[in-house]
């Protein structure tokens, strides 16, 4: 069972993964390219833990103990002690390949390397490492501390043992794993992202306002938040890159990204993380 976890990337997903792993009693090494990114990641974890303390979900002592289990570094060499490394860097094939190679080069031979990619092929990423049998997709959902699901995605070479131990890890940190075969968008994003993209087309065509589209899906379909508010939560840049992968890999025009989505990303309106998306924050 994993005791020391490396998490590469201190952004929304990476810091959430670091938080839930540390909260489950594991030692976490959080890696990013500079100290500022690491400090932002830690501040976001502290803020999330504060909310949980306020709601009596955890004690103040548990908050402190969780934070104390997270070390921060820009040195990949420290990943040499990890039983499991989860890459949660930006959703870009070349960047991910470079990062994975770097981690693979310093990790123990028996350690597992996982990626939190939301849309890139697990088989292709695995092939950029020396451990395709010990390489797996581990896809978390935003916000990581609240969402129960993780997808465990097996690439062509992922071993049964790797799938089992990663599912065991997921349960140990309080998540519910589902097994998925490598395929564009895996299972959940394949269904979710085209729905959000369609909501953006609906807005772009003036069919209804953003507020009414979201109210429609909340009150008409029982969704906890509307698709446009969810786009802002996920990040419009991430959503666009997912849709671009679908469009390219499936070769089907039903996956074309909405022009308004492209325009919003070009304008730097990424959603919550940039302060503005379909709504202002
Ligand atoms: N940590 C701790 N607590 C948090 C939190 C965090 N990161 N984020 C929100 N909360 C708490 C809030 O403090 C709030 O507490 P309160 O009820 O005591 O005030 C509570 O959660 C509810 O938050 P809000 O009132 O702000 O908003 P909601 O009632 O809408 O709930 C939600 C928030 C649980 C996120 C809910 O909106 C939801 O379930 N949304 C759907 C999320 C979803 O679909 N995620 C998947 C995205 S797809 C993805 O991630 C895949 C990727 O690859 C694209």
Automatic annotation (TrEMBL):
Residues 185-281 form the 3-hydroxyacyl-CoA dehydrogenase C-terminal domain. It holds the Pfam family 3HCDH. InterPro entries: 3-OHacyl-CoA_DH (IPR022694), 3-OHacyl-CoA_DH_CS (IPR006180), 3-OHacyl-CoA_DH_NAD-bd (IPR006176), 3HC_DH_C (IPR006108), 6-PGluconate_DH-like_C_sf (IPR008927), 6PGD_dom2 (IPR013328), NAD(P)-bd_dom_sf (IPR036291). GO terms for biological process: fatty acid metabolic process. The keyword Cytoplasm does not apply. The record marks 139 as: Important for catalytic activity. GO terms for molecular function: NAD+ binding; oxidoreductase activity, acting on the CH-OH group of donors, NAD or NADP as acceptor. PROSITE patterns: 3HCDH. Residues 4-182 form the 3-hydroxyacyl-CoA dehydrogenase NAD binding domain. It comes from the Bacteria. CoA binds at residues 48, 55, 118. Keywords: NAD, Oxidoreductase. SUPFAM superfamilies: 6-phosphogluconate dehydrogenase C-terminal domain-like (SSF48179), NAD(P)-binding Rossmann-fold domains (SSF51735). NAD(+) binds at residues 9-14, 32, 91, 96, 118, 142, 273. Belongs to the 3-hydroxyacyl-CoA dehydrogenase family. This is 3-hydroxybutyryl-CoA dehydrogenase.
